[in-house]
């Protein structure tokens, strides 16, 4: 019933454009553990009014089956500022249609009245003890995309078997229910609540539990620049700084207000490198700021850059900032917990493709470190399990600039990470240390961890399948590579098939998933490299790391060796020319 998408389809039918119609209606978007992520547009392969209604009907029926008190507790729905003029889709409209679906079945809905960072949805689920949460966002994807992210009652993103259960329920509820399209009905409903004011108050109160140096914050001369890259982060990071008694950061004026066109950047993703930060560098130079904090558009990720003494800007990798925040959060915990026995209940987590620096810190300091599969859905769910057992999960991170610094949010949170980074930098400044100098001190103490990650773009699933099949049948059937150029392979873990050469029974410990590709190679020189497919983008990613024991200070030699290993990996395992893969460009 959306006139714009309807008109697009009618036009294609009139033109007899079977190819385009096949693209729109050939296959339904797949609902996975990351929910939905696709371009906005017409047809069942895109995000639009109809597919949102169908998805929410399925999700509603699935929740009814799982929660006898759904009609008492309800769900929360948040949205970012994305909008797509040609198809009439927008995050706000999708959120309202989803709310209408639940309300039509007598389920209370806590619908944010304005745009909100993604972490506010999982926060609200646990804070208000709701059954589930939905965030309508495509995070840092290109502007035409949107997404539908789902949280369970524990405040973490869903994991299997919920994705399959919801997917099946969607297929059983494709016919829109009566009044499904009429989202105006919710405005007069007693089941509609707006959690905006409460959550804004309580969230900023809760993150103050991670504020340990208020006096330093009040007096610091350190200046910060913040960019929200045309997303939702500006207002919330300003409030977070206020909650920590820090002077507000300078906001990049051209990027501080939400704009679905993302006019000043090619990709609205701070992970993509310095190109996204051009305006931030200029403002920092003008205002004399030493540190830049950049959120992605839904403010669940954080990139950090620091001006070096040479005048150059260093953009920290996700692993480097993970090392700094891990060190900082543990140091703050240690200074506030004199009871030496308490450390046996302290945990930190990171994903299996992230740097193992937290493992090195944990080994030396005596707390626990665990790795999980890639993605915060795994870390959030594991953190909740540990917390339910009375453990303290201080920190979790993944190399894709995602950080969970505060136990009130069981997902990555770029708002709390930004203000905690600012407090850490302010504290270090009182010791005449920069973030870069402290990072070197962390590596000096716990051992250098040199990492390198990148990706290739490939739009053909058959090519991706073939590439991974070749690795599994390298020298004949069911044989993996024994070397990569001069680098001897000493171990293989394949989380698609469940094989792990390092285990006595050759079975992997981490959960396996046949629907995504992921192979990790361990090399005789101590290097580790993982190749995997992305769940939300047409990319084959790789992650590599070389670690040295504490005291080995020849970091340049480590970097050279890792560069050589990565070049060999690209040439022999990816074979970009043969497979027609497109390299990541700045």
Please give a structural write-up:
The chain is α/β, with parallel strands linked by helices and 586 residues long. The chain folds into four domains: 3-193, Alpha-D-Glucose-1,6-Bisphosphate, subunit A, domain 3 (Alpha-D-Glucose-1,6-Bisphosphate, Chain A, domain 3, 3-Layer(aba) Sandwich); 205-314, Alpha-D-Glucose-1,6-Bisphosphate, subunit A, domain 3 (Alpha-D-Glucose-1,6-Bisphosphate, Chain A, domain 3, 3-Layer(aba) Sandwich); 319-446, Alpha-D-Glucose-1,6-Bisphosphate, subunit A, domain 3 (Alpha-D-Glucose-1,6-Bisphosphate, Chain A, domain 3, 3-Layer(aba) Sandwich); 448-583, TATA-Binding Protein. It is built from 19 helices and 25 strands. Strands 18, 19, 20, 21, 22, 23, 24 and 25 form an eight-stranded antiparallel sheet that branches. β19 and β20 form a beta hairpin. α3 (49-66) crosses α5 and α10 crosses α15 (414-430). The longest helix has 20 residues, at 555-574. The protein is globular and about 70 Å long. The relative contact order is 0.09.
Protein topology:
Blueprint: H1 3-15, H2 18-25, E1 36-39, H3 49-66, H4 70-73, E2 75-79, E3 83-84, E4 89-90, H5 91-104, E5 109-111, H6 120-127, E6 132-136, E7 145-151, H7 162-171, E8 192-193, H8 196-207, H9 214-219, E9 224-227, H10 233-243, E10 250-251, H11 278-287, E11 291-295, E12 302-307, E13 313-315, H12 318-336, E14 346-351, H13 357-365, E15 368-372, H14 376-388, E16 392-398, E17 402-404, H15 414-430, H16 435-446, E18 449-457, H17 461-472, E19 483-484, E20 487-494, E21 499-500, E22 518-523, E23 528-533, E24 539-547, H18 555-574, H19 576-579, E25 582-583
Parallel strand pairs: 2-5, 2-6, 5-8, 9-10, 9-11, 14-15, 14-16
Antiparallel strand pairs: 1-7, 3-4, 6-7, 11-12, 12-13, 16-17, 18-24, 18-25, 19-20, 20-21, 20-22, 22-23, 23-24
Helix pairs in contact: 3-5, 3-7, 10-15, 12-16
GO biological process, one term: purine ribonucleoside salvage
Protein name: PGM2 protein
Pfam family, one: PGM_PMM_II
